[in-house]
Amino acid sequence: MISPTAAATATATTTSLATVFNTQRMRKFSFGCPQLHPTTSPWMLRQQHTPTLMAASGTSLHSKTTSSWEDRISVHGLSESVVGVLGGGLLGRMLCQAASQMAIKVIILDPMENCPASTLSYYHMVGSYDDSATVQEFAKRCGVLTVEIEHVDADTLEKLEQQGVDCQPKASTIKIIEDKYLQKVHFYQHAIPLPEFMQSKRLAYDGRGNAVARTEEDLSSAVSALGGCDRGLYAEKWTPFVKELSVIVARGRDNTVLCYIQLLKLFTGPNSLFTWGNICHVVKSPANVSWEIMKLATDVARRAVVSLDGAGVFAVELFLTADCQVVG
């Protein structure tokens, strides 16, 4: 499974950092980046009924301050140095850290006023990243628009692309990533090996949006646990696995693809040493697997990313089975 991940490492290609993004299960992942000092700017953007600048004291700033902000952050097309990120979570924070070392300004759109990326971003607009009007207003200030979470309004990104906005990865890729059934179909068509289990088409990750039915009698309760068929579900055969791996894949605008370290993910759940709900508990790097498994996993991850459109850094999550098969 793939996740666009704005967990841009400082080693991810410098020529394409501005196009980093986040792919889902591919679920989100994290690892250490050097700590940078937060911005000392006293201003931040906050969303009221429409995007409006607010001073640190809470005083609303209108035309004069807005003009000053526009002077500093160029309108789309005039500067490639401003990266707009939909989402301000941990992955967005790490992107800000890496971008700062390259003198790249990162502005974020996130509904949480104190989201993890807010202290390191050049500016933070407080607003919903799945609200079309807010995203379109935000995009006016970006040389390139990317995401650190896949649960965004892909239709709006598609409209922005038609208007000439540089969205990375492409809206078509976000649509595939955010809908797990479309993701399965897409990778099946590109001969990517897949596991088999039941989960929600959308919003399924890290123990959420999926359920196991071990018998026919369990099907009804599994469907109910996932919110019913109206949400859109698909069912597959359970695939026993012994380890879950993540491969970090960076893809540049020139379609250059580089694979980075493999991570071993340890989950809580019925088949683990822990007792609660299939949530990632520990991430180890590098993964303790053989060279042959590492090569196989890297090949699967590379092919998965090559099949998608757009540049960015992807976390490709894979299952390793007892018979040494790697499936996505």
UniProtKB/TrEMBL annotation:
What's the protein called, per UniProt? Phosphoribosylaminoimidazole carboxylase
Q: Per UniProt, which keywords does this protein have? A: ATP-binding, Nucleotide-binding
Q: Which residues form the PurT/PurK-like preATP-grasp domain?
A: 83-177
ATP-grasp fold ATP-dependent carboxylate-amine ligase-type domain location is 188-323
- State if DNA-binding is listed as a keyword: no
Question: Which GO molecular-function terms appear in the entry?
Answer: ATP binding
Answer whether the UniProt record assigns the keyword DNA repair to this protein.
no
This protein's pathway reads:
Purine metabolism
> What is the originating organism of this protein?
Cinchona calisaya
Quote the InterPro entries the UniProt record gives.
Answer: ATP-grasp_carboxylate-amine (IPR003135), ATP_grasp_subdomain_1 (IPR013815), PreATP-grasp_dom_sf (IPR016185), PurT/PurK_preATP-grasp (IPR054350)
